[in-house]
Design goal:
Elements lengths: L6 E5 L5 H11 L4 E4 L9 E6 L15 E4 L5 H4 L10 E2 L6 H17 L2 H9 L16 E4 L3 H11 L5 E5 L8 E5 L4 H6 L3 E4 L13 H6 L4 E5 L8 H9 L3 E6 L19 E3 L9 H16 L15
Parallel strand pairs: 1-2, 1-3, 3-4, 4-5, 6-7, 6-9, 7-8, 9-10, 10-11, 11-12
The structure holds NADP nicotinamide-adenine-dinucleotide phosphate (NAP) and glyoxylic acid (GLV).
C-alpha cells in the first residue's frame, strides 16, 4: 500500500470541482485534491469522487480505497466492466435532492391534473375552452421506487390531497401512502394509477420496465413522468402509446441518450414535456458534508455510509 499523502481525484463533466475542493481542503486538509485529468501519481490515489467517469478510468488507480459517487444513482459506475472490485462505493443519500425531486414531481402532478398541457395547446390555437375539472381526490398518483427520493415525493404529493400509491421491492410504511411491493402487486398498482412517477434505480431488474406491457396496464388517459433514468423507459413503446391516445401525456427528465438527440421525436411531440436531466442536481453546498464525513470515516479506517449494494445494483 502506498504511504504518501492520500489523493482524492475528482471526475465530472457537469459538476464544478471548485466548491468541492474548498470544502474538502477545509475539513480534511490531509487529503490532496486533484481534478481529472491531472491526477498526479496514480499510486497515491486513494479516493475517487466521480460522476460518470469513462469506462475503465477508475481501474488505473491501484491503491483506490473507495469510490464516492457525486450522484444518487450509480448505474453508470456499475456498468463499467473494469470497475475496481472489493472496495466500497458510496452514493448521495438525499443531499438536498429529495426536496428538488419532490418539487419536480409535484409540479408534474399539477401540470397534468390541472390540464395545463391541454390549455397550452388551446392557447396556441387561440381557443377559449374550459375543460371539466377533476378533483384531486380522484387523481391517483402511483410512485415506482419508494427510496430516499421517491418517499419524499410521495409525501409532498400526498400532502396536497392526492391519493398516493407506492410500489417498491420490499414493503414499508409511509404515512398517507398506500404501499404495495413485489412484482405480483405491479398490475394492481398500475391499474389504479392515473399518473405514474418513476423513482426506481436503474438495475438489471428495472431496465426497460416501462414498456408496452406496463403502459397497457395503466388506465386509458394516464400520464407518465420519468425522473429516474432513461434506461427504464422503452422510448418507442411510449411514443406508440401516446400516438394511440392510451397515454395522454408524459414529462421526461431522463433519456436513453443524453443530451437528447436534436432529431428525437420527443422534442416536438405535443404531449411530451422534455427537461434536460435537472429534476434533482447535486450541489456541493448541500452534499459536501456527506462526502466529508465519509472521507473522515475512511481515514479513520471505518466503513463509509450510503454504501451501494453491488449485487442489487443500487
Ligand atoms: P434508493 O433510495 O436506492 O431507492 C430505490 C427504491 O427503488 C427503493 O424503494 C427500492 O426498493 C426500489 N427498487 C429497487 N429495485 C426495485 C425493483 N426491482 N422493483 C421494485 N422496486 C425496486 O434511490 P433514491 O436515492 O431514491 O434514487 C432513485 C433514483 O433516482 C436514482 O437511482 C437515480 O437513478 C434517480 N435520480 C435522478 C435524478 C434526476 O435529476 N433525474 C436525480 C437523482 C436521482 P426497496 O426500498 O425495497 O429497496
Ligand atoms: C442524478 O441523476 C443522480 O443520480 O444523482
Amino acid at each position: 500500500m502506498n504511504s504518501s499523502a492520500p489523493t482524492l481525484v475528482f471526475f465530472s463533466n457537469t459538476d464544478d470541482p471548485a466548491p468541492w475542493q474548498a470544502a474538502i481542503a477545509a475539513a480534511v486538509p490531509s487529503i490532496t485534491f486533484r481534478v481529472a485529468p491531472h491526477t498526479g501519481p496514480v499510486d497515491a490515489v486513494r479516493y475517487a469522487l466521480v460522476w460518470k467517469p469513462p469506462r475503465g478510468w477508475l481501474a488505473q488507480f491501484p491503491n483506490l480505497r473507495a469510490i464516492l459517487s457525486l450522484g444518487a444513482g450509480v448505474d453508470a459506475l456499475l456498468e463499467d466492466p473494469a470497475l475496481p472490485p472489493g472496495i466500497p462505493i458510496t452514493r448521495m443519500v438525499d443531499a438536498g435532492m429529495g426536496r428538488q425531486m419532490a418539487e419536480y414531481a409535484t409540479y408534474a402532478v399539477m401540470h397534468f391534473h390541472r390540464h395545463m398541457q391541454r390549455y397550452s395547446a388551446l392557447q396556441r390555437e387561440g381557443r377559449w375552452a374550459p375543460l371539466e375539472p377533476v378533483a384531486a381526490a380522484r387523481f391517483t398518483v402511483g410512485i415506482m421506487g419508494l427510496g430516499v427520493l421517491g418517499a419524499q415525493a410521495a409525501q409532498m404529493v400526498a400532502s396536497l390531497g392526492y391519493p398516493v400509491l407506492g410500489w417498491s421491492r420490499t414493503t414499508k410504511q409511509l404515512p398517507g401512502v398506500e404501499v404495495l411491493s413485489g412484482n405480483d402487486a405491479l398490475p394492481g398498482f398500475l391499474g389504479r394509477t392515473r399518473l405514474l412517477l418513476n423513482f426506481l434505480p436503474l438495475t438489471p431488474a428495472t431496465r426497460g420496465v416501462i414498456d408496452a406491457q406496463l403502459l397497457a396496464m395503466l388506465p386509458r388517459g394516464a400520464f407518465v413522468v420519468n425522473l429516474a433514468r432513461g434506461g427504464h423507459l422503452v422510448e418507442p413503446d411510449l411514443l406508440a402509446a401516446l400516438d394511440r391516445g392510451h397515454i395522454a401525456g408524459a414529462m421526461l427528465d431522463v433519456f436513453e441518450q443524453e443530451p437528447l438527440p436534436a432529431t428525437h421525436p420527443f422534442w416536438r411531440h405535443p404531449a411530451v414535456v422534455v427537461t434536460p436531466h435537472v429534476a434533482a442536481v447535486t450541489q456541493a453546498e448541500d452534499a459536501a458534508a456527506q462526502v466529508i464525513a465519509n472521507l473522515q470515516r475512511l481515514e479513520r479506517g471505518e466503513m463509509p455510509v450510503g454504501l451501494v449494494d453491488r449485487g442489487a445494483g443500487y
